[in-house]
């Protein structure tokens, strides 16, 4: 496989699965490949999750294992992401594990959207849907942007990237 390779965990609202595919495709077009360890439930497994046939403790244990494997966590920020308790929990755990946390606004967002509380507290970077911005953030160049890619003020309590 040619190009740069990174192991990441992509935290997202399951309705934003297409955006996760779009993110990996956008970066692959710049010769930057990411291996995503997040859970992408197939329809049968999603039914089991929806019917509470899998305990929350089992899901948490699996998510922690997948985050430990990743070098960092990327959070896809969509219109509903702020209301997803699992996303907020994943961000908290990523912070506890010392992982850099990069927020990426979903493609096509024009207006500012609400962010998960823990992303406000712990983000290393928050960037618009632009390959160069995302790659810079993944590489540790801390930056804060609005959905359109313009500069935004740094957030208090941001996660420091060493």
Task: Report on the architecture of this protein.
The chain is α/β, with parallel strands linked by helices. 37% of the residues lie in helices and 17% in strands. It has 6 helices and 5 strands, in the order βαβααβαβαβα. The chain has a 5-stranded parallel sheet with strand order 2-1-3-4-5, with helices on both faces. β1 (4-11), α1 (17-28) and β2 (32-36) form a beta-alpha-beta unit. The chain is globular, with a radius of gyration of 15 Å.
H/E element sequence: EHEHHEHEHEH
| Head-to-tail CA distance between termini | 28 Å
Largest sheet: 5 strands, parallel
Q: In one word, what is the shape?
A: globular
Mean pLDDT: 86
Q: Numbering strands along the chain, what is their spatial order in the largest sheet? A: 2-1-3-4-5
Question: Which secondary structure elements does this structure contain, and how are they paired or packed?
Answer:
Elements lengths: L3 E8 L5 H12 L3 E5 L6 H8 L5 H14 L2 E6 L7 H12 L4 E5 L11 H6 L2 E3 L3 H8 L24
Parallel strand pairs: 1-2, 1-3, 3-4, 4-5
Features of the shown structure:
single chain; about 160 residues; alpha/beta; 5-stranded parallel beta sheet; 5 strands; about 35% helix
What's this, in brief?
This protein is an alpha/beta fold. The chain has helices at 17-28, 43-50, 56-69, 85-96, 117-122, 131-138; strands at 4-11, 32-36, 72-77, 101-105, 125-127. It has a five-stranded parallel beta sheet with strand order 2-1-3-4-5, sandwiched between helices.
């Amino acid at each position: 496989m040619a190009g740069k390779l990174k192991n990441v965990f992509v935290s997202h609202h399951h309705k934003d699965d297409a955006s996760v595919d779009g993110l990996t495709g956008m970066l692959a077009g710049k010769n930057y490949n990411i291996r995503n360890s997040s859970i992408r439930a197939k329809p049968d497994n999603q039914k089991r999750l929806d019917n509470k046939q899998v305990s929350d403790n089992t899901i948490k244990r699996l998510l922690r294992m997948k985050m430990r494997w990743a070098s960092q966590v990327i959070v896809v920020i969509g219109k509903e992401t702020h209301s997803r308790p699992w996303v907020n929990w994943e961000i908290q755990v990523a912070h506890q594990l010392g992982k850099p946390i990069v927020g990426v606004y979903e493609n096509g967002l024009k207006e500012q959207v609400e962010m998960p509380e823990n992303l406000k507290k712990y983000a290393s970077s928050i960037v618009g849907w632009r390959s160069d911005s995302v790659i810079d953030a993944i590489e540790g160049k801390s930056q804060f942007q609005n959905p359109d890619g313009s500069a935004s003020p740094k957030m208090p309590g941001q996660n420091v990237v060493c």
